[in-house]
Amino acid sequence: MGTEGSRKAVALLSGGMDSATTVAIALRDGFEVTALSFSYGQRHSAELAAARAVAKQFGITQHHIVDIDLRAVGGSALTSDLPVPKSRSAEEMSTDVPITYVPARNTVFLSFGLAWAEVLGADDIFIGVNALDYSGYPDCRPEFISAFEHLANLATRTGVEDNGRRIRIRAPLIAMTKAEIVREGMSLGVDYSLTRTCYDPTEDGLSCGRCDACILRLRGFAECGLEDPAPYVPGARPGS
């Protein structure tokens, strides 16, 4: 994927199915991708290993892992010892902002992506946020993406110099269901066995199958008539 002399872009790559699909879309659209991942104090390293594997699959040679200590901020089950909610229904997921929300995480990540884009001379930043499927995260909404793009063009040299260039925050999955994301990724050759979405995996990287992220992911594959190729703890898959 990608072409010589293609446009430059920064893509945020967590190692999950959404960010992997987003990277595949950026490459399909002819962008020369620099991938950014973050070691932010998350409770597991499985997603960073997945991010490395995804970058390798796509032949991305510029993949940077940035260290940020969001554990110092706290307030989330992903950066603390708070329990991760399990086995919740769609209705329960959609009632409020979940404890797995990391305060201002996407604002922080996009800010790093914006700084990197300025240095690289890239006008496009890709992020795999998804507003559907009950995520409940305020920083995954179209309003947030639009607002950050506006900020980016006020706060950067690229945005304020009169050269016809603008920073674009691209969120190609924003209005897609998990099933639609799976279909798109499969059509682009994403190896979903490499990706990890789980909020509470085992130490050896097996997904729990019961957290909100696993439930939505498994449902997306099931709606496509497919089995999720990622490894799960025994008995975690529906019907197993």
Automatic annotation (TrEMBL):
InterPro entries: QueC, Rossmann-like_a/b/a_fold. ATP binds at residues 13-23. It is an enzyme of class 6 (ligase). Its cofactor is Zn(2+). Zn(2+) binds at residues 198, 208, 211, 214. Its EC number is 6.3.4.20. Coiled coil: none annotated. Binds 1 zinc ion per subunit. Gene3D superfamilies: HUPs. Pathway: Purine metabolism; 7-cyano-7-deazaguanine biosynthesis. It comes from the Bacteria. One of its GO terms (biological process) is tRNA queuosine(34) biosynthetic process. It catalyses: 7-carboxy-7-carbaguanine + NH4(+) + 2 ATP = 7-cyano-7-carbaguanine + 2 AMP + 2 diphosphate + 2 H(+). Keywords: ATP-binding, Ligase, Metal-binding, Nucleotide-binding, Queuosine biosynthesis, Zinc. One of its GO terms (molecular function) is zinc ion binding. Catalyzes the ATP-dependent conversion of 7-carboxy-7-deazaguanine (CDG) to 7-cyano-7-deazaguanine (preQ(0)). Belongs to the QueC family. PANTHER family: 7-CYANO-7-DEAZAGUANINE SYNTHASE. This is 7-cyano-7-deazaguanine synthase. The gene is queC.
